[in-house]
Amino acid sequence: MTWPQSVIASMDGTGVPQPPLASIPGLPPVLGGPEVAVVKVDPDMLRAMSGSLAAIAREVEALGGRRSLDDAGRAVEGSDTAAACRDAGDILASALGVAASRIDEMAFIAGDGAENYDVTDTTFASQLSAMGEL
Questions:
Q1: Rounded distance, CA 2 to CA 98, Å?
Q2: Distance CA 106, CA 99 (A)
Q3: Measuring CA to CA, which residue among 93, 101, 96, 87 is closest to residue 65?
Q4: 120 has which bridge partners?
Q5: Can you tell me the mean pLDDT for 40-61?
Q6: Could you tell me the superkingdom of the organism this chain comes from (predicted)?
Q7: So what's the pLDDT on residue 18?
Q8: How far apart, in Å, are the Cα atoms of 41 and each of 36, 44, 82, 105, 119?
Q9: Per residue, what are the HEC states of the chain?
Q10: What's the alpha-carbon Rg for the chain, to the nearest Å?
Q11: CA 56/CA 54 separation, integer angstroms
Q12: Residue 112 near residue 19 (C-beta atoms within 8 A)
């Protein structure tokens, strides 16, 4: 049993090798499935998606982060709670910034796909997958 099969077999608790991912009907190639026919994307839909994602990114940025906890910290100035509010605000601001930048990246990929008519849904999915995890 090869390494991937042994890992998959151990995941379900039975120890029985599972079928290869390529044999699962309907599983897209991005997830390890067989190759499927490539369909051209609709550039107008990608432009709309890009605009929507860009707007969402701006809304996420506008949520504030540290600013949203400043009032709470000022209300209990000098206490441990005030310091915790400052720390939490910094962490929240960082998390919101990361989320907004990831959404912006998706907007760029969608917009770039709309401008380059050769981009296919498979390429688009691959680009999103290449972004990796947060």
A1: 37
A2: 11
A3: 93
A4: 40
A5: 86
A6: Bacteria
A7: 57
A8: 15, 9, 51, 18, 7
A9: CCHHHHHHHHHCCCCCCCCCHHHCCCCCHHHCCCCCCCCECCHHHHHHHHHHHHHHHHHHHHCCCHHHHHHHHHHCCCCHHHHHHHHHHHHHHHHHHHHHHHHHHHHHHHHHHHHCCCCEHHHHHHHHHHCCCC
A10: 22
A11: 5
A12: no
In the chain, what is the greatest distance between 2 CA atoms, to the nearest angstrom?
64
Give the span between the Cα atoms of 111 and 46, in whole angstroms: 6
Query: How remote is the C-alpha of 64 from its chain's centroid?
Result: 21
Burial string for 101-118 (b: 16+ CB within 10 Å, else e) reads ebbbebbebbbebbeeee
How far apart are the two ends of the chain, measured CA to CA in Å?
32
Residue 121 near residue 38 (C-beta atoms within 8 A): yes
pLDDT > 50? residue 3: no
| Sign of torsion over alpha carbons 115, 119, 122, 128 | negative
